[in-house]
Amino acid sequence: MNTLNKNANLASTEPASFCVNLCPISALSDLDILARTIYGEARGEFQSFGLASLIGVGNVVANRVKSGGWFGQKISEVCLKPKQFSCWNPDDANSTIIKQTPEQLERHPVFGACEEVALHIIRGDWPDLTKGANHYYSSLIKTPPLWSKGRECIVKIGHHLFFKI
Questions:
Q1: Burial of 79 (0-12, 13-18, 19+ CB in 10 A)
Q2: In the prediction, which pLDDT does 26 show?
Q3: Per-residue exposure over 131-153, b if at least 16 CB sit within 10 Å of its own CB, e if not
């Protein structure tokens, strides 16, 4: 069942297959996983580019859930799929940050905005700023990902370039 609709149950009922260093993933709802993904992927964009930078990442997750298939059927499946959102990769510097306990994350001012964005994305309250994109990357990285070769960016929000593949 798709978790992106007006009546979605935000708490995932299925246990996760692994735990993180500080906060067990099995204790996280889809809302929390989405908020942490947005935080890990776009918190640095917020000060300069505002909510749109956070919404764009949330839109990509929502678009992947809507398309289902390989990406996954639920927010947790999409966000935690290996090598899809770098902030969840064990070797990524953001991994430790997003795996903090809820009490620790609440001390980060931008995390509250990420929670709000995640809630509105799940409820379907906001339009898709990415025009259906299901991939993105930061223009600040030295080498664009291989999947982007020969593909046209459909939207740029802050430093993030969005693609529909």
A1: buried
A2: 66
A3: eebbbbbeeeeeeeeeeeeeeeb
Q: Residue 106 CB: number of other CB atoms within 10 A?
A: 12
Q: Which 8-state DSSP code applies to residue 79? A: H
**In the chain, where the domains are located:** 25-132
- Radius of gyration from C-alpha coordinates of the chain: 15
In the predicted structure, residue 8 carries a pLDDT above the cut 50:
no
Q: Are 120 and 114 in contact (CB under 8 A)?
A: no
93, 99, 101, 103: CA torsion to nearest 10: 60
% of the chain at pLDDT higher than 70:
85
pLDDT digits (tens, 9 = 90+) for 102-123: 889 999 989 999 999 999 999 9
